[in-house]
Automatic annotation (TrEMBL):
Domain CYRIA/CYRIB Rac1 binding: 18-320
Coiled-coil residues: none
Topology term for the membrane: Lipid-anchor
Protein name: CYFIP-related Rac1 interactor B isoform X1
Organism: Echinops telfairi (Lesser hedgehog tenrec)
Family, per entry: Belongs to the CYRI family.
Assembly and oligomerization: Interacts with RAC1 (GTP-bound form preferentially).
Top-level taxon: Eukaryota
Subcellular location, record wording: Membrane
Keywords: Lipoprotein, Membrane
Major subcellular location class: membrane
Signal peptide: none
Length: 324
């Protein structure tokens, strides 16, 4: 079982699986290595993407100056010169989302394949489960940063407007080779989403399910609900929580728990909030609310605004009021 640390015996299966996912130290077994290495190539760039996004300041000042003085060629050139390298960054972020989507699909294939159950997969393939968790952790961090940075959409809108004006006037556009029209359209759709990375993962998971018709949908949704349960149990049980050697692991688990809930809600026909859901939503929300308020507001907002079924009639009033 590799790095699996079994603790307690599961007396009531309804309570979810009782095992500890080693998010800190899990290492790939021989059978995991091929997928693990492919995903690792993508994940090693994740931190750099987040650093670039965190330091993204935008060209708001230059754009305002150019718009206020449309006849001043120097200001037009200055704004264009400021925006082109930023659009290069936005292109890099978008292309990374495509790589992340491909990595996620590889992991889903490995973690849902027969003959093992999702719980057996997560126990046997802890390194892949850890990578899946790292993708979700990255995704929520990326989207939190993007949501608080209006410069991204402003810069890209200005870039597209200026580019179309240049085309009309037959002005050669330096930098156009970087983002052609088709790519610009796709990037526009991506950045128009409040949480673009999460949307990419949700779509990829839904597509994975629809393309693998021979695989029961439960293999995928049970993998997600099991991960949500494991994260919740690890966070609310002192015996598990005391095993974390790094204080960052708590916020990591919280983000992963929220990420799998959102994916489950998008992929499962009735979603995460229905009575028949295999995710204990009240328990998960309680775990979030038990944290220092400032640290989880973004995650609570993700549940409020990026899930699909929260406002369905089948969602209990108690869950709705917990998220108000």
């Amino acid at each position: 079982m590799g790095n699996l640390l079994k603790v307690l015996t599961c007396t009531d299966l309804e309570q979810g699986p009782n095992f500890f996912l080693d998010f800190e130290n899990a290492q790939p077994t021989e059978s995991e290595k091929e997928i693990y290495n492919q995903v690792n190539v993508v994940l090693k760039d994740a931190e750099g993407i987040l650093e670039d996004l965190q330091s993204y300041r935008g060209a708001g000042h230059e754009i305002r100056e150019a718009i206020q003085h449309p006849a001043d060629e120097k200001l037009q050139e200055k704004a264009w010169g400021a925006v082109v390298p930023l659009v290069g960054k936005l292109k890099k972020f978008y292309e990374f989302s495509q790589r992340l989507e491909s990595a996620l699909r590889g992991l889903l294939g490995a973690l849902t394949s027969t003959p093992y159950s999702p719980t057996q997969h997560l126990e046997r393939e802890q390194a892949l489960a850890k990578q899946f968790a790292e993708i979700l952790h990255f995704t929520l961090r990326f989207d939190e940063l993007k949501m608080t940075n209006p410069a991204i959409q402003n810069d890209f809108s200005y870039y597209r407007r200026t580019l179309s004006r240049m085309r009309i006037n037959n002005v050669p556009a330096e930098g156009e080779n970087e983002v052609n029209n088709e790519l610009a359209n796709r990037m526009s759709l991506f950045y128009a989403e409040a949480t673009p990375m999460l949307k990419t993962l949700s779509d990829a998971t839904t597509k994975f399910v629809s393309e693998n018709k021979n695989l029961p949908i439960e293999n995928t949704t049970d993998c997600l609900s099991t991960m949500a349960s494991v994260c919740r149990v690890m966070l609310e049980t002192p015996e598990y929580r005391s095993r974390f050697t790094n204080e960052e692991t708590v916020s990591f688990c919280l983000r992963v728990m929220v990420g799998v809930i959102i994916l489950y809600d998008h992929v499962h026909p009735v979603g995460a909030f229905a009575k028949t859901s295999k995710i204990d939503m009240k328990g998960c929300i309680k775990v979030l609310k038990d944290q220092p308020p400032n640290s989880v507001e973004g995650l609570l907002n993700a549940l409020r605004y990026t899930t699909k079924h929260l406002n369905d009639e089948t969602t209990s009033k108690q869950i709705k009021s917990m998220l108000q």
